[in-house]
From TrEMBL:
This is Copper-translocating P-type ATPase. The lineage of its organism: Bacteria, Pseudomonadati, Pseudomonadota, Gammaproteobacteria, Alteromonadales. PROSITE patterns: ATPASE_E1_E2, HMA_1, HMA_2. InterPro entries: ATPase-cat-bd, ATPase_P-typ_cyto_dom_N, ATPase_P-typ_P_site, ATPase_P-typ_TM_dom_sf, ATPase_P-typ_transduc_dom_A_sf, ATPase_P-type_domA, HAD-like_sf, HAD_sf. Keywords: ATP-binding, Cell membrane, Ion transport, Magnesium, Membrane, Metal-binding, Nucleotide-binding, Phosphoprotein, Translocase, Transmembrane, Transmembrane helix, Transport. One of its GO terms (molecular function) is copper ion binding. The chain crosses the membrane at residues 185-204, 216-234, 254-272, 278-296, 430-452, 458-481, 754-773. One of its GO terms (biological process) is copper ion homeostasis.
Length: 799
């Protein structure tokens, strides 16, 4: 009961109440303290709608298992509360928002098509993609035009229950689905065994001249055993068919439902009038085989579903937050931006932040796959899910919940799993017409057989309806994509969409950025030439470079421990920086940038960073970085596959040419501005070349967006990661080869799936129409056809 809730604990979620929080709700005429505005909003909604039984019957001994929203809560307005949405909604540009919903009753590709079609005509919905494999809906919407509760309501009207996806509830959902299948399978299996024994007696009775009374008795017993199968075990097929009909379309469960109910009613009619044929054993066996196929598909899908959600389960439930010099333990979901937390050795960091301690060693293997600790210094970024290795850390929070890097990775992974290649979209479109055509063929078959042999007309028609159901065709692409995403995730490669499978088909050109891509981007000062006081130069350069995000800046930012404070800084992308320091104008950057002030100046061949004032050139620096160990192997492997390699860089021609020659790159384009790079990609595309671009800098985001497919690294700028289609989480360039090989293998497996599914349907149709396939054999064949597709796709799970 509510009175049993301890003092200092949130009445709703049972978590400790943070210091300084004074929020409450009124329950049974008593004020109850809550920990945050989100819990307050949920609790008030529960109480307002008379759902207080939730608080009476919950388990107070397991506070971490208490759901944020109880199942009894039918009013959906609470999902529009910003505090509640912070747990499962990501904010995008302007008013756009993004989330993933769990839709438990999706059965096939036709369900996905129906949901996407309904939302496509809904004002305010920007994008909706259903992933049949894990029964999730990835959706983006304009919150200024439509509320999330309205979207969920629209789905409910067409028969689909959608709720916000919560990672900590995934195991319960999986177990519930599996339990439901096992129960239905158990009933169908037991009934099939009993009815088959009776069927054998009836078959032998034909030979031994069974008397009518005994035959009628055996028919009635068969009816008794088959009825639970029809009324209980086969319910998933009826529900799916009914939803599609209500929406004005037909899906693949419509012919299955017609076959089951038609056979059952015909057999029941024979029992009532005492003559004809009964096929209760075929009905039971048919249902059992169909359920077996769906159950095995479910197990295969769950394998990918569990993998795709396991990352967020590592986020801890509690955090240690500082307040007025002390510490308090609060729920991690209560953390806010600018909070300061303390993370002890061995603990997992609960949110993204900036390190306030002098140094740290953190394990980021959850994100990158690299088990070696990463060293961090004051001011460095720390990501949620990292594990503190040695000393107690102080961290200032910069992002929480759905805004963290880890959450964005899971969101991008969900989007990739939900995305469909063009061929699958075409198949989904054709499938609805295929089912209509199938129903027409079945009707023609029935009338033809009614004229040839009326006793067999019904059963031949049922065989046609069942045998040609295009379930395998709808599974061909989703199971392949799920397997590919799973495979690449295990390689620590994040894929955002299905365009990978489209572009790899004609891939003939790979373009590399230089700095941070073919090289590590860890610059060092190699040499320098000073034309003025060294200490003054160091102070000026440090003052400018400490405020730059360019990779070269890190090598020069710490030349002085007493940098001066600039009055004004202006960044010229791809050129350099203008600065005003103590009223004096300075420039730091490339040779051409300096020549705008000093046309007569020519830098030394090795110099790539020059400092100048309006009056004179003050210093030249040679800053260089180290070539990646795997760059040569990657370039060589691409050339062996017939793929042209190009280096596209803003660096000087001499430096770029030197690296290109050492790596045997086919073509090098140097001294390229961001606009030049985009123009270069455009020119290649006008030559009908399929271009992949690999880069990592802020300057690379436009060209990454222009390429047919783009890749970047986990260390890349936020803009580059946003623009890229593929993110290499462990910073290994060789993963480029893995992406190509996996994409090509996926296309092969997808093609095999389509050929098998289409070939089976086209082959079995005339055979079934000729009356050569019994209904139970048709069900078995259809299930085996789907399982062949799933099993073939599972080959992608093996590394």
């Amino acid at each position: 009961m509510a009175s049993e809730v301890e003092d200092g604990v949130c009445f709703h979620c049972l978590q400790p109440i943070p210091h300084g929080i004074e929020l409450s709700v009124v329950y049974q005429d008593e004020s109850q303290a809550v920990c945050c505005a989100g819990c307050q909003a949920v609790a008030e909604t529960i109480i307002e709608h008379g759902l207080t039984a939730y608080y009476k019957h919950r388990d107070l001994d397991k506070p971490q298992q208490t759901p944020l929203l109880p199942e009894q809560l039918k009013e959906l307005d609470v999902y529009d509360n910003p505090d509640v949405q912070s747990d499962f909604v990501r904010s995008l540009d302007n008013q756009a928002k993004q989330t993933t919903l769990t839709v438990n009753n999706i059965t096939c590709g036709a369900c996905a098509w129906l949901i996407e079609r309904e939302l496509a005509k809904t004002p305010g919905v920007i994008k909706s993609v259903v992933n049949v494999s894990n029964q999730r809906l990835h959706i983006e919407w304009d919150s200024a035009q439509i509320k999330l509760s309205e979207i969920i309501t629209r789905l409910a009207r067409i028969g689909y229950q959608a709720l916000p996806f919560q990672q900590n509830q995934i195991e319960a959902n999986i177990n519930a689905r599996r339990k439901g299948f096992i129960q239905r399978l158990g009933v169908a299996g037991l009934a099939t065994m009993q009815v088959m024994m009776i069927a054998f007696a009836l078959y032998f009775g034909v030979v031994s001249d069974l008397d009518p009374t005994t035959q009628q008795y055996l028919w009635v017993v068969s009816f008794v055993f088959a009825t639970p199968v029809i009324l209980y075990s086969a319910q998933p097929f009826y529900k799916s068919a009914l939803k599609s009909i209500q929406a004005g379309r037909v899906n693949m469960d419509v012919p299955v439902t017609i076959a089951l109910i038609g056979a059952y009613l015909a057999s029941l009619y024979a029992v009532i009038i005492g003559r004809g044929e009964v096929y209760f054993e075929s009905i039971s066996m048919f249902t059992f085989f169909l359920l077996t196929g769906r159950f095995l598909e479910l197990l295969a899908k769950e394998k990918a579903l569990k993998f795709s959600t396991n990352r967020l389960t590592y986020i801890p439930n509690l955090a240690h937050r500082e307040y007025q010099g002390g510490l308090e333990d609060i729920s991690a979901k209560q953390l806010k931006v600018n909070d300061i937390i303390v993370v002890k050795p061995g603990e997992t960091i609960p949110a993204d932040g900036v390190l306030l301690s002098d140094k740290a060693a953190v394990d980021e293997s959850l994100l990158t796959g690299e088990s070696r600790p990463v060293t961090k210094a004051t001011g460095d970024g720390i990501v949620a899910g990292s594990v503190n290795q040695n000393v107690t850390l102080r961290i200032k929070i910069t992002a929480t919940a759905q805004q963290t890097v880890l959450a964005s990775i899971v969101a991008m992974q969900d989007a990739a799993l939900a995305d469909k290649p063009k061929v699958q979209k075409a198949i989904d479109h054709i499938a609805q017409y295929f089912v209509m055509t199938l129903l027409v063929i079945a009707a023609v078959t029935f009338f033809v057989w009614s004229w040839i042999d009326p006793d067999h007309a019904l059963w031949v028609t049922l065989a046609v309806l069942v045998a040609t159901c295009p379930c395998a065709l709808s599974l061909a692409a989703p199971t392949s994509i799920t397997g590919a995403v799973h495979r690449l995730n295990r390689m620590n490669v994040l894929v955002k969409g299905a365009q990978l499978l489209e572009s790899v088909k004609h891939l003939d050109t790979v373009v590399f950025d230089k700095t941070g891509t073919l090289t590590y981007g860890q610059f060092k000062l190699i040499s320098r030439e000073d034309y003025s006081d060294v200490e003054t130069i160091n102070a000026l350069v440090s003052a400018i470079e400490q405020r730059s995000e360019h990779p070269i800046a890190a090598a020069l930012a710490h030349l002085s421990d007493r940098p001066v404070q600039p009055d004004e800084l202006t960044n010229h992308t791809g050129q350099g920086i203008d600065a005003v320091i103590n009223g004096q104008a300075y420039r730091l950057g490339r040779e051409e940038f300096i020549q705008a002030w000093h046309p007569e100046f020519n830098a030394k061949p090795q110099s790539n960073v020059i400092l100048a004032s309006r009056q004179a050139v003050l210093a030249e620096f040679q800053v260089d970085d180290q070539v990646r160990e795997d760059s040569h192997a990657v370039v060589s492997a691409l050339k062996q596959q017939g793929i042209r390699t190009i280096m596209l860089t803003g660096d000087s021609h001499a430096r770029a040419e030197k690296l290109a020659q050492s790596l045997a790159i086919d073509e090098v384009l140097s001294e390229q501005s961001p606009a030049d790079k985009v123009d270069t990609i455009n020119a290649l595309q006008r030559q009908q070349r399929t271009v992949w671009m690999i880069g990592d800098g802020i300057n690379d985001s436009p060209v990454l967006a222009q390429a047919d497919l783009s890749m970047t690294f986990a260390h890349a700028s936020d803009m580059a990661q946003t623009a890229a289609d593929v993110v290499l989480l462990n910073d290994q360039l060789t993963r480029v080869l893995d992406v190509i090989s996996t994409a090509r293998k996926t296309r092969i497996i997808m093609r095999q799936n389509f050929i098998w599914a289409a070939g089976y349907n086209l082959t079995i149709l005339p055979v079934a129409a000729l009356g050569l396939v019994a209904p139970w054999a048709a069900a078995l064949g259809m299930s085996l056809s789907s399982l062949v597709v799933v099993a073939n796709s599972l080959r992608l799970y093996r590394l």
